[in-house]
Recover the amino acids of this structure.
């Protein structure tokens, strides 16, 4: 569970399904439905969606099919449609960024006061303005401190670079760029590594637990398609065989890179590992 007083993150490539993932988890929580990602559950109380990137007209295209639009247990703050919040995110000189972030955090706190809010989901993270590792640490700690002070469970959707490419190395760079903000002060860390980056028929959903809570989880997942009548791209578990990486094949088969690459291509074509 994403407990009160914690700060947590979701990270992925651009258009990687971060919003869909948390909406599925929220729907399962509110409607008491089963969801494979047991670690993304929420404490009792209302949930605030702080939407910084989409207008409500765009956002509700996802919320309505999920049964989340105008739900009594959900409070929405929308930076696109509410000028007072948008104004607090305008570019300022670097020396003024901490003050502007505090003003923004104060405005959000005031809006959520006395509304029985237990969880705040920032999509996208408006506090992610780091230009160095020390900045990243400061802003990350600030959110964690705010979560404790307000007794909120906070879920931050990290903002990645967008190089609009399917090349594996650059997609890894895109995804990692958004995760620079996720310092040790974050608790649960969810990472979606898409099929283009993996070169697999499935995506990998990696879950890093808080210190002392056990080893990392890894789920192989698929997303629905329009051909299947799914216009949202809902997640479901993949039930086929796991495709090992080239490095894993090299270690197990004690072969060179070229041979491992050839074996992996055969696996992707559907051949059985034992027959290669």
């Amino acid at each position: 569970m994403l407990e009160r007083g914690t700060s947590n993150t979701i990270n992925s490539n651009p258009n990687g399904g971060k919003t869909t993932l948390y909406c599925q988890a929220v729907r399962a929580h509110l409607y008491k439905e089963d969801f494979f990602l047991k670690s993304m559950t929420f404490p009792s109380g209302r949930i605030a969606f702080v939407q910084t990137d989409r207008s409500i007209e765009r956002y509700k295209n996802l919320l309505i099919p999920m049964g989340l639009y105008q739900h009594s247990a959900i409070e929405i703050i929308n930076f696109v449609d509410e000028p007072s919040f948008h104004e607090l995110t305008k570019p300022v000189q670097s020396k003024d960024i901490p003050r502007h972030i505090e003003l923004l955090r104060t405005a959000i706190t005031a809006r959520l006061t006395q509304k029985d809010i237990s969880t705040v989901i920032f999509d996208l993270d408006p506090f992610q303005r780091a230009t160095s590792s020390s900045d990243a640490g400061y802003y990350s700690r600030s959110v964690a401190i705010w979560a404790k002070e307000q007794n909120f469970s906070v879920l931050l959707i990290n903002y990645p670079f967008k190089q609009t490419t399917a090349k594996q190395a650059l997609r890894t760079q895109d995804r990692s760029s958004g995760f620079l903000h996720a310092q040790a002060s974050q608790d649960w860390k969810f990472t979606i590594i898409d099929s283009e980056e993996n070169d697999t028929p499935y995506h990998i959903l990696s879950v890093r637990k808080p210190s002392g809570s056990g080893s990392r989880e890894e789920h192989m997942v698929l997303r629905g398609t329009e051909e299947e009548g799914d216009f949202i791209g809902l997640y479901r578990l993949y039930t086929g065989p796991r495709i090992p990486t080239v490095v894993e094949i090299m270690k197990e088969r004690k072969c060179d890179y070229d041979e491992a690459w050839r074996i992996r291509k055969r696996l992707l074509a559907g051949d059985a590992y034992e027959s290669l």
Notes: The beta strands are 6-12, 46-51, 74-78, 117-123, 153-157, 189-193, 203-208, 217-223, 235-237. The first strand starts at residue 6 and ends at 12. The mean pLDDT is 89.
